Amino acid sequence: MDSVLNPLKVIIMAILKHNSLFSKLLFFFFSIIFISCKEKVDCNNDGQISNTFSFPRESNYLPQKGNLYFFEKNSENKDFFKVVDLRHANIIDGKLNIFFNDIPDHLNVKYNYKIVLDDSLVFEIMNMQMKVDTMGRTMGGWAITCRLMSFEVNGKKYNANEGTLDFPFNSAKKIK
Predict the structure, then answer these.
(1) Distance CA 18, CA 114 (A)
(2) Are 162 and 133 in contact (CB under 8 A)?
(3) For the chain, first and last CA: distance in Å?
(4) Burial of 50 (0-12, 13-18, 19+ CB in 10 A)
(5) How many angstroms separate the CA atoms of 173 and 170, rounded?
(6) DSSP class of 53
(7) Distance CA 53, CA 49 (A)
(8) Angle (CA) 100 104 105, round 5°
(9) Which residues of the chain fall below pLDDT 70?
(10) Which residue, of 49, 68, 70, 72, has the greatest Cβ tally within 10 A?
(11) Cα–Cα distances in Å, from 15 out to 8, 18, 19, 78, 98?
């Protein structure tokens, strides 16, 4: 046991003797660790999109029923793997807001979505493009995240506004 403690004592004594060298080495060590531990961002897996649907009010239309369908990205929207029902819709501050039951906290770029309202209006949301972006400075450097850049609704491309799914209500496909 003494043979193990003797080298440890020697090291501790050397550190205490050369305090300024120790603090420089400690600073260098933690700087290297901090710089090398940057977070990797994968927008295909980490990209999160707001789960709210809000449209500029174009009429007094309020949907009475509806569904949000989830599809695998490359499935051509044939077989959905999840569906959630419309909880309610309201008009506040000149916007039609649509809310669904049991929806995830965020929508994900890995999937395509289809909104069907009153069995007559369809919004097929697909081809969402994300990009790594900086949100601002933090104490540890830049805050890096994924931002929605563009998406398609019923075949028409839209640029994302502040990373949200903003598109006109009249872009709906009518099926009745």
Answers:
(1) 67
(2) no
(3) 85
(4) middle
(5) 8
(6) E
(7) 11
(8) 105
(9) 1-41, 44-47, 134-143, 163, 176
(10) 68
(11) 11, 5, 6, 68, 64
Partners of residue 83 on adjacent β-strands:
69
Those residues whose C-beta lies under 8 Å from the C-beta of residue 67, and which sit 6 or more positions away, are 83, 84, 85, 86, 100, 115, 116
Beta bridge partner(s), residue 137: 142
* Cβ 115 vs Cβ 123: under 8 Å: yes
Bridge partner list, 54: 97
Instruction: Please give the structure tokens belonging to residue 147.
Output: 């931002």
Helix locations, the chain, DSSP H: 2-17, 19-36, 43-46
How many C-beta atoms surround the C-beta of residue 87 within 10 A? Answer: 12
Confidence at residue 156, expressed as pLDDT on a 0 to 100 scale: 94
Give the list of residues 6+ apart from residue 35 with CB closer than 8 angstroms, or none. Answer: none
Q: Which of 109, 104, 105 is nearest to 131 (CA)?
A: 109
